Write the structure tokens for this entry.
Amino acid sequence: MSFLKTTLENPLSAPAHSLRTHNGVDLEFLDTGILRVSPAGALASQKNNYRVVISCGVHGNETAPIEMVEQLFTEIKSGELAVNNELLFIIGNPPAMIQESRFVDENLNRLFSGQHTASESKEANRARLIEEHVTRFYQEGDEGRLHYDLHTAIRGSELEKFAVYPFLHERQWSTAQVAFLERCGLEAILLSSKPAGTFSYFTSNHFGAHSFTIELGKVRKFGDNDMSNFGQAMQGLRDLISGKENFDGKPNAIQVFSVVEEVIKRSDDFKLHVADDAKNFTVFPKGHLLASDKDYEYRTQRDGERFVFPIANVPIGQRAMLVIAPTTL
Ligand SMILES: [Zn+2]
């Protein structure tokens, strides 16, 4: 039995059912793409330190993280991978996966923290359902809350593996979490400067979870992913699931960036001055024109600024690019 296959066979909703592995781990399929995993009873009271959400496929064409989650599911089901934390696995957008697209109606990762209330799109309904399951999961116990939302990027990147750290308001950035992400093979971390409709901001802000949007490389089709490229991240997740990860240690060489400009598309005159195939994290010298619009332009303010996530064809009023610069935690 496959978590991925079951999800694709019932992309809109699925009746709840459950099974127990031979080593006593409970697998509860709560709805389509939503799987609750609980350690065997005796362990639960002793060793559960964390309540972990591991999500993938929030963008339907980002297949590698979905294959990673399927692999973890297979190892848990066979008993090969021990479970010593409470887990919630989520495959975000099954209908978009089936049509091999980022989304069906609109970007799911802009609709969390109640942003779905203004819409009746497929993704808005999905955001609502995911929020309900995550809320129940986190409120079931008082273990430390974690969330790793796994993605792959549309374009190539000078730094291939990196995480976006949601805006924390008054909370402190966690160096222990950043050290864990570095052990997972991440090269950079990008500190957000304001609230967002992302899944990771929702879990971070509503539940005080250590949450991250994690970019693991370039988008490819199912079966085209070189899974050896994700070995370090897989090992990090296995250590987390089995309880071996205890979040000690400090970051070493991982690069830290903060947002210096959020470039918003203001009118139909909007233009991005970066090549279609330019890589995320490309470095620019001071004074370089990156974007222009009616009565607006963005030129880099100092040497060493870089851009990430440029998309020119967003609706007016939405973010078209982030400009970032090196910082420290
Ligand atoms: Zn994505």
About this structure: DSSP finds eight helices and 16 strands in the chain. The CA atoms of residues 74 and 80 lie 9 Å apart. Residues 59, 62, 151 surround zinc ion (CB under 6 Å). The chain has two domains: 3-242, 259-326.
